[in-house]
């Protein structure tokens, strides 16, 4: 018994099945987490090695390279990148998404342990850490005060607010910026030290030996036990000034106060945080990987409100940058689009059927199918996000198709005079095969998307699986609930209303005209193949003309303005430059375009010569210019800021962060040659008006003082290179040597030379070291000083020395065009052995190109094989798949006419078109086979099948197109990605439907005359079995 027969015979069973799907679907929906995008985090492990006193070049050769050689043998590595600077090596290993992070980290530790045997003895042990996800700040909280000192304000932010926020559900960490740290400043006077025979090593040793708290055993008696301890005796500047350093030859003692100025205060300023023109302390909230952004932000905001009564007098606590605004607005927009789409689809069905009762069926079955899909999402650990909600929007036009096909055929049987029960039985039975065939076809189209790699693959896996699940459930509902409702709700043949009769009359004329055109068209055999060849030619042409990118440029309501100063620029110099940039951007805040400006120095992940401005934009409904237009305005406003390079960037929805979209990597064996190549490319690329903010991550412009130690002389005197480096590090750079306690908190004792004492190279002669014999020797006698330019870091990419050229895109210039342009320059200008690679968004774009082509080809093969199995023919699937080029032509034409790019979203829509347009061919071919089985002549069966399936074909096409219209007209947060999908679906389905009505019949007549239906072989078998054997 067929499923539809069972449902009609047992209507309560069919109804209960649908109710259970709804109940469990709603429960699943309520349990699913809400987030912006699917989880796209890759397992990342970092290896950090400190080697005090070692130059970047020494570290690169003796540490970084040796570690990379071992790490490269680990399985599942996606790429290895490293950055080596003076004293530190940092290696990042990103693994394939399928790799377990804990297992990957274990493999890295084993590789590091093997490599450690060959590392320098005086290098610190490598530290291996796991990175569980993106560390983007989702909310910046600012604290300011009119009554608190900067030190008190920083202490309150760190010890009260940061601690409280970090305990909230979903918060991973809290970054504190702009905090003035409390330290005991010890400013060493080199002249006083030399006159008293004191060295940096003497002072360091004295501080570490005397400023300690130590256990002193236990005193026991018959009544009590006392734990003895020696408390730390230094907690104020006056105490530290009496700390004994050493006894000199005269017998007198030298105290710390004799050779240093000591006071409790701020650590030398090296961080700046400003909000809307005022110095503040900023607290950046980083969420846990799986946490819901909206819930975490709401939790933090509630904590801020709850903290208000307990703030110190004059303190103000608020928030500035809030990433949840985009997420909340985008999800709200998608929900609205979902509701509008359902309404439009129901309206189209009513127009075609002209009966409220008939329209009620899909109005019920569509929500059942959509809600049921959440059961699958819950079982697979997915979330409710912008991608899965977009999948449901697209599913509306698909899940309604099965109900339409069944309902339209039942309606046809009612028109012929059958009772509702008989019409439901015969009508559903007649199209059951077509429903299953189209469902399997659609599911087979979406499932190959699961095999896509990279971030794009992980994002659209949820899209594909949820869409396939909704379609599968719609098939089940169409063969169970739809016939049951039809048998109970629909009435026997009755006179249609005025509107329905007018529509039916118009449609009858359309069918008559279509029959006439079809008869005329079929008399010309070769016109259809010619049209197909022309379509393929136009597809090739349009594919070259349409720009390509990873994702559309999205307006996320924020612009990140990256600021980079000259290498070696001081903090004071960068602070002045950041103030100038902030002043230039102030008019944007004054005219309402920008709601807040958050300024930070250093920038995230950058050095002292970097800064960042977060420009939070007014909401989408309250401003006219797009984020891209504002970026252009910012570029113009800051173009001539002296001393810095200002780079405004739109954050990416895929990778997040603040990297430029173009990251073009040159690899090789020699940095000098690589730098020449990179500079040559940058010089030529400046002529390309589509590129801006071209920058390199390597430049020999950092002022460097090369201290060449005479190691033989130093060895004779009993002085190690480490002693030389430590003394210079303390006197010139400053170093936290020990700590002191105040009110239960630990603070650093910060040792540094007097700034005025070291202004020129000759001043370094005032630094003395103690020989093995106890005498003092000036640094002049041990080292040779040379000024030179150096790169701040030496970078590797996939174990090769590498320099990255980064750039932003201007106007409609696409990422694909930019990378093709740079690839062309490499082919024309650089030697054949130059190695080219990509990072960030550029890498994802390049990887995505091959993946989409593979998925598209796999989907075609799978669909062909499934249709061949269903039709029991290799000819019929070929005819059906001829509709695919027609859909592609329409989709590309839509992108070309609207000026949109071919990106990840539109490419996935192209894959969807395979299923959307082939279902029309399936309906015609399947019914033509049925009529031929009933004995109708070939031409008559073909024309009748085409005319009889005209209404369901147009109904399904119009519902799909209606579902795409709200996507095309989308506005507000995240509209760009929805528009990309909507345009491809709208244009592709429209053109393919129009041409399918003529191409499929023509190709069927040309190729299928000698084919048979699936039932033909069954009849042959039955006849063979009925034959009686001779004798």
TrEMBL record:
The chain crosses the membrane at residues 12-30, 334-353, 360-380, 386-410, 431-457, 463-484, 526-543, 852-871, 878-898, 904-928, 953-974, 980-1004. GO terms for cellular component: plasma membrane. Its main location: membrane. It is found in: Cell inner membrane. InterPro entries: AcrB_DN_DC_subdom, Acrflvin-R. It is a multi-pass membrane protein. It comes from the Bacteria. This is Multidrug transporter AcrB. It comes from Oceanisphaera arctica.
